[in-house]
From TrEMBL:
Matches recorded under Gene3D superfamilies: NAD(P)-binding Rossmann-like Domain
Keywords, ordered alphabetically: Metal-binding, Oxidoreductase, Zinc
Name of the protein in question: Alcohol dehydrogenase-like C-terminal domain-containing protein
Phosphoprotein among keywords: no
Taxonomic placement: Eukaryota, Viridiplantae, Streptophyta, Embryophyta, Tracheophyta
The Alcohol dehydrogenase-like C-terminal domain, residue ranges: 2-47
GO molecular function, one term: oxidoreductase activity
Names of required cofactors: Zn(2+)
Similarity section: Belongs to the zinc-containing alcohol dehydrogenase family.
């Protein structure tokens, strides 16, 4: 999904997960921001 979002012109892509290794992979695949939902409040972070 990240690569598709990038291909369609998304300028900001936010990946949310509870595992840091998956978030690191999301960054490699094109996520511009990552949020670990186990450590941070997702709604507060996205605002």
């Amino acid at each position: 999904c990240l690569q598709i979002a990038r291909a369609f012109g998304a300028s900001e892509i936010i990946a949310v997960d509870v595992q840091d290794d998956k978030l690191q992979n999301a960054k490699k695949l094109g996520a511009t921001h990552t949020v670990n939902a186990a450590k941070e409040n997702v709604a507060d972070r996205i605002r």
